[in-house]
Amino acid sequence: MLPVSQAEATILDLVKPLDKQRDAEFVSLLIAIERILAAPAIGHLDFPHWDNSAMDGYAVRYEDVQYASSQQPVVLEIVDEIPAGRSPQQLIKAGQAARIFTGAVMPEGADTVVMQEQTQREGDRVTILTAPQPQAFVRHQASYYQAGKTLLAPGTMLRAAQIAVLAAAQCNQLKVYRRPRVAIISTGDELVHPETPLEIGQLVDSNQYALTALVTQTGAEPIPMGIVPDRPLVLQKAFSKAIATADVVLSSGGVSVGDYDYVEEILTALGAEMHVRSVAMKPGKPLTVAKFSPAHATERKLVLYFGLPGNPVSALVCFWRFVQPALRKLSGLADNWGPAYVKARSRQDLSSDGKRETYIWGQLHLIDGYFEFQPASGSLNSGNLINFAQANGLAMIPMGQTAVASGDEVRVLQFGFPIMS
Ligand code: AMP
Ligand code: MG
Prior knowledge:
The protein is α/β, with parallel strands linked by helices. It contains seven helices and 28 strands.
């Protein structure tokens, strides 16, 4: 049994990010939402694009107004009016000014803006009552960003803020990584599709659906490959097909030590390198992780195989704890692969046998900006999927610790939106 931190390190070490040449494509701005940059985004526009005014006021020559005061006001001739979006028509000479508005381009000759509150206007003359600072209220061209420099680095996920920046910079085509392909297989003679009426002893294959949802939410491409019975030859064929198709294979079930648990044996027969056989965590102990190396140097890189436990709760916990970070690294994301833990005050006593890192599912509530954790009510065993439906977090009790007292702080792996009450 590997400690969780060691299993995590082993898994992340096995993941080699997608190739920034071979596994990248050019897409347009709106298609790039939530994709990951495979090359630096470089703008060809300075920010600001032009020297412009940060205020409504008057564009002036500093030397004309540097000694202005209410005792010694300076009167200037207004020779132009420059709203935002219009190009200045006049050069500002000594004794002159231009009416200017926020965002409008500074006219040649002027270097400073006097805000309108510090002026008085009469017809085409303006009186300056206070000396401004030199270059006051001028936003200088390229002072935020210089064309040709890296705007966004490779490995950045493109979300609203980044998309806004790219749009403003007219970066209309982005080189992004393709989505990792993730094959999903459910193993078990007892499993049926949700639309099939159950015969006695049968069970719906919920893992196929849960894992498809999770893979999609992680920004990868799910390839649902259906249910495979517990028969070694059929399993072997299904696994080979999955390995040939995907970057990552997720199977669930068949990783315990029962008579019908064939996964590890088949992986070995297919030439996999076994890296994780079990992890000191609860739920999720039988997690199996293997690597398939390419047979030829020219082939696409390795395929990572996760044999997840069949128990629906265990499969989900293993996904959040190990698979999601691995998929994020694989997808080209530079960092922050997760999982994200928040600190919460437990509303109840939590317990563990201390022998394994224990995850207790329940609800994260956000009260005045502070998290509280309420364990799920009813049976907290990994076969009980039903009380998982209201859960949004997994409280973690480290190995060696047996309890968290009500009112004490606990780290919670957050996987859903907090409840605001
Ligand atoms: P196993 O690891 O194959 O022994 O499965 C452990 C438990 O999880 C058994 O009760 C299975 O019936 C259940 N199980 C396995 N696969 C699935 C699945 N795809 N969907 C829902 N439950 C499953
Ligand atoms: Mg099974």
